[in-house]
Design brief:
Blueprint lengths: L5 E5 L6 E7 L4 E4 L9 E7 L9 E7 L11 E4 L2 E7 L4 E8 L9 E6 L3 H11 L1 H12 L3 H11 L8 H8 L4 H12 L7 E7 L4 H12 L6 E7 L7 H11 L3 E5 L5 H11 L5 E4 L10 H11 L5 E9 L5 E5 L6 H6 L7 E4 H6 L11 H10 L7 E12 L12 H18 L5 E4 L5 E4 L9 E7 L3 H13 L6 E7 L5 H9 L6 E5 L6 H11 L4 E5 L3 E3 L4 H9 L4 E9 L5 E3 L2 E3 L5 E3 L19 E3 L6 E5 H6 L13 H11 L3 E12 L11 H23 L19
Parallel strand pairs: 1-9, 10-11, 10-13, 11-12, 14-17, 20-21, 20-23, 21-22, 25-31
Antiparallel strand pairs: 1-2, 2-3, 3-8, 4-7, 4-9, 5-8, 6-7, 13-16, 14-15, 14-16, 18-19, 23-30, 24-31, 25-26, 25-30, 27-28, 29-31
Length: 723
């Protein structure tokens, strides 16, 4: 790990000064005593080669009284360069760099502080927010210099992204300086890994094929082998392109197959000739950016135990324009059962591919998905790495001859068959069927006998809501082994008493009195203690059942030994989405994924129509085995009485080694907050602020980095838009 022990300070009209840097891998302190930088514009910049459009460090200012100014928002300048430009506090003593979500600081270089020219600040402000520059000028005229400085500071802040082209220009364009840096770092690797690229070829457009090969030859990382298996192509010009490439480049191995065997056999022919310790899969018409293999090799050098590496990707059209980026989650085995979200760029240890028998003929269209599910049978999560950078351009031009575009129906059928065989191979009693949008759906078998489910419903009056929830639970749900544990928080209305009397003779319904101040965690814990079921379902009193199979779906997942908690797909009454899983850090502590999208909207790359692992699910409808609930200590009734208790519960389940799963196949309506109301009083706001503080103290690392939400996506909301 490279960490600077000095920083350079450049003052206007003065020679550069070397500033002392103290600290360790946990934080760096840049001393500023005696520099007179208080209330002066400063640009702080550094290079972090492990990042691109997101910062792995936070920057804050240490003040004379020992407190800290809120974090100084770093902007990404592209390819690992980060900076902050603004006014330093009047009493600043030092600057601190600390890891955002890792245990230690990433390698940092080129640490520099510079006083920008006033003219440059004004010019930048005029391009970004001219009205604020005008306001700064007016305040300057009336001699309110500090107000003028703050207006100018606001004017120069980075502008919002204008679209994907803008994102590419700012964060994903390799410069000459980047190339020099990569080459310099590579020179220090004692054992650079050998990478073999497997390219099956069959009748592509010769010009497109030529560009695909050229993208490999232009790689900044030199230790590669391109294994091309021509699957008996008949198209004019293909053979000539391959012959020229093989003659010009000794790192290209050309295999000519005598008969067409389709993509799996062709890829295996390439695999037979692979000499690298890792193999990358590349279609005959797609493109690798010049830094793709360097990023992969760098990851392997950092962790030689890796077995599987994958990256983000986008598409490229016939004119070379990039579009539709896919910013992926980290390793998500539940999502992989439904869709091959890993491709592309996919890099796998060569021995591992060979050990499972390579690609299988008969799975064309989903041959990579089948391979990955077979590899995933015994794959340790810590041996999988997701590189959150766009390292693959998937050609979407019609007529390019891509294998994956050949037959959608065939691809769906083979994908489903691959899941069927995965289920059989792993000894599960489940079954596979075609799900929404053609993706896989795995229907889990319930344990035999089906476990008793204790549905814990905290309530206080609002009988009109509770009656709908109970009616749906007891008459519209096709799961028989149910008991409803109503935890009554001091109801006083006669309608509620009448409702309780109505169910008094129903052996499936019990009322547990729990008067006092509303404390969701305490009420839920009391309901759990009173529960007789093996599975607990925490359900708000404002939930409405709309389809019979919802509980069967939740219980079948919750019963899995590796699962800690399960959540449902919740809609508002107008059928816009309320809950699609929880994204940590979105909007502050956490936010609902895809909030507000229409019922028919499949979400970002169909994420809202397939089951997947998430960091947390809402307590409005949360299923958990009682044994897990007791193991992790239940809800925190002392410090998280109302807000974030469900997030905390899920994070503790994850910490204990369990997965949290969200499923779109359990659909309910949630009349959110109708029974409790909003955070609209001073007391409620104070309590909410206290609970927010608890979450930050307890889970700051997790809140900074949700593994199932890509770092390149905005955290203002969990809407899967560019950061």
């Amino acid at each position: 790990m490279t960490l600077p022990d000095t920083a350079r300070l450049i003052r206007r009209g003065l020679p550069p000064v070397t500033l002392p840097v103290e600290g360790s891998g946990l934080r760096l302190i840049i001393g500023l005593d005696g520099q007179g930088l208080g209330l002066r514009f400063v640009r702080v910049s550094f290079l972090d080669p492990t990042s691109a459009a997101f910062s792995r460090v936070t920057l804050s200012a240490g003040l004379s009284e020992g407190s800290y100014k809120p974090q100084l928002a770093l902007s990404a300048d592209g390819n690992g360069r980060f900076s902050w430009t603004g006014l330093l506090p009047k009493t600043v003593r030092h600057l601190e760099l600390a890891p955002t979500f890792d245990d230690v600081l990433p390698p940092l270089t080129n640490l520099e502080l510079a006083e920008p020219q006033l003219g440059g600040l004004i010019a930048t402000g005029l391009m970004r927010r001219p009205h604020l520059v005008a306001e700064a000028g007016l305040w300057r005229l009336v001699r309110k210099r500090l107000r003028a400085k703050y207006r100018l500071e606001a004017a120069v802040q980075p502008r919002a992204l204008a679209g994907y082209d803008d994102w590419i220009a700012r964060f994903d364009t390799v410069t000459a300086a980047d190339r020099d840096r990569m080459k310099a770092e590579m020179a220090g690797w004692s054992t650079p890994p050998a990478l073999s690229i497997l390219m099956p070829v069959y009748n592509p457009d010769p010009g497109v094929l030529e560009k695909a090969i050229a993208s490999v030859r232009s790689q900044l990382y030199p230790h590669w082998q391109l294994c091309i298996a021509d699957d008996a192509s008949t198209r004019a010009g293909v053979a000539a392109v391959l012959d020229r490439a093989a003659a010009a480049e000794p790192r290209i191995t050309l295999i000519r197959r005598g008969e067409n065997g389709h993509i799996s056999r062709a890829t295996n022919s390439a695999l037979e000739r692979a000499t690298g310790s890792f193999c990358a899969l590349l279609d005959h018409d797609d493109l690798l950016p010049e830094n793709a293999l360097w990023e992969v090799a760098r990851a392997i050098v950092a962790d030689p135990e890796l077995d599987l590496i994958y990256s983000d990707e986008d598409k490229v059209d016939a004119k070379g324009k990039r579009f539709e980026p896919h910013f992926k989650p980290d390793w998500n085995p539940e999502l992989l059962l439904a869709q091959n979200y890993l491709n592309h760029l996919t890099v796998i240890r060569t021995d591992l591919i060979r050990r499972v028998g390579g690609l299988r003929a008969g799975f064309e269209g989903s041959q990579d998905h089948d391979l990955l599910m077979r590899i995933a049978d015994d794959l340790a999560p810590d041996r999988v790495l997701h590189i959150p950078k766009v390292l693959y351009h998937w050609r979407a031009a019609i007529g390019s001859g891509t294998f994956s575009d050949a037959a959608l129906a065939t691809a769906e059928a083979t994908r489903l068959r691959a899941l069927d065989e995965t289920i059989a191979r792993r000894g599960w009693r489940h079954r596979a069927e075609r799900g929404p949008a053609g993706f896989n759906r795995m229907i889990r078998a319930l344990p035999e006998p089906a476990p008793l489910v204790s549905v814990v419903i905290p309530t206080r009056d609002r009988a009109e809501l509770l009656s709908v929830a109970l009616d749906g639970l007891l008459t519209k749900t096709d799961y028989a082994a149910i008991e409803a544990v109503i935890v009554d928080n001091g109801s006083v209305e006669p309608e509620t008493a009448a409702l309780f009397a109505h169910y008094a003779d129903d052996p499936r319904v019990r009322v547990v009195p729990s008067p006092g101040t509303f404390n969701f965690s305490k009420l839920s814990n009391e309901g759990a203690r009173a529960a007789r079921g093996e599975v607990l379902l925490f359900l708000n009193n404002d939930i409405e059942v709309v389809e019979p199979g919802w509980l069967r779906e939740l219980v079948s997942i919750a019963a899995e030994p590796h699962v800690g908690a399960v959540g449902a797909k919740l809609f508002y009454p107008d059928w816009t989405l309320q809950h699609g899983g929880v994204v940590l850090g979105a909007g502050g502590i956490a936010g609902h994924s895809h909030l507000g999208i229409e019922r028919e909207d499949p979400g970002y790359f169909a994420r809202m129509v397939v089951a997947q692992q998430v960091s947390a699910v809402t307590g409005a409808c949360l299923a958990m085995r009682k044994a897990v609930f007791e193991e992790i200590g239940g809800f925190d009734a002392e410090r998280l009485s109302v807000a974030f208790n469900d997030i905390d519960l899920c994070l503790r389940a994850t910490e204990a080694g369990y997965q949290v799963i969200w499923t779109p196949h359990a659909v309910l309506i949630h009349h959110e907050s109708k029974s409790r109301g909003q955070e609209d009083t001073p007391e409620k706001r104070k309590r909410f602020e206290g609970e927010t503080k608890v979450m930050v103290e307890r889970w700051s690392k997790q809140l900074s980095r949700d593994p199932f939400y890509n770092l390149n996506l905005s955290r203002a909301k969990a809407n899967f838009r560019l950061n």
